[in-house]
Specification:
Blueprint (H helix, E strand, L loop, with lengths): L3 H15 L4 E6 L12 H5 L6 E5 L2 E6 L2 E6 L4 E7 L8 E7 L3 E7 L5 E5 L6 H4 L12 H7 L7 H6 L9 H11 L12 H20 L40 E5 L2 E5 L6
Antiparallel strand pairs: 1-6, 2-3, 3-4, 4-8, 5-7, 6-7, 9-10
This protein binds a DNA duplex (16 and 16 nucleotides) through helix 6.
Length: about 270
Amino acid sequence: MPELPEIESTLRSIYPYVKGQRIREIIVYKPKLRWTVSKNMSNSLSGEVFISIERRAKYLLFHTKIGTLVNHLGMSGSLQLLSKGSKAAKHTCVDINLESGLLLRYTDVRRFGSMLLIQNPFEHKLLKNIGPEPLSDFLSGEYLFKVSRKRSIAIKAFLMDSKVVAGLGNIYTTEALFAAGIDPRNPAQDIPLSLYLKLVIKIKGILSEAILLGGTTLRNFSDGNGKPGSFQKRILIYGRSYKPCFLCKSVLYEVKINQRSSVFCPKCQT
DNA sequence: ACTGGCACCTGGGCGC
DNA sequence: TGCGCCCAGGTGCCAG
């Protein structure tokens, strides 16, 4: 489900209710997630305070004095703020009861996400090799040009590689490549600096707008308050295979790039 | 060092 | 209605 804008929207919606809150109790309903939730995570964290929360790539980091609760929402996860005592549902994975009486619930149908207690998250293998945040100044056209030299993989796969840039998934890479007029199959090394400069402007613009709109809700994403995103109204080509391009009316093509469906306009993207 | 392919898991939608 | 198939917003790991 979620890419960077969805995670960011989740963070912003839960932040005021979770920061500074003491954990009363953590209940793990489904420990078998992408990474098995350790049995003593709930005991270790009971009584601790969430000092701060931040996002890195698609991870949410809940910092406490004794370590960081690292959460990834996988393909189908979401966090919800509920009131104490809300009954667990079929796909409830973890409930975090807060001293305020609110409950932070992690739900994940496909269980591709997880929750881990990690001491030094930025040194952990999951996070230490992640590339620059796309909305920071560390992502620039010059940077992408430089790291794409001698990279023969398709530009789309290159952008979705978290070691290159953080947080870009199938929807937003598809949209950004369309906006920049780049064929997603082109080898990353063949793209000139001028196009990388344009691409980065599009990536930042699309992600920023998506965050303002609360992310994209295709099936069931919602933020911590249960509010769906609305960026799906702005999507120009993702999921529109074989429909007419909004710009030139050509039929949009679909190809698989690294097993991910990739839609593009054969006329607008070269 | 890079690359593509597979794995994990459930559910929705389609054709027959 | 039901079955079997394919698809889905991610990403770590593996062999070549």
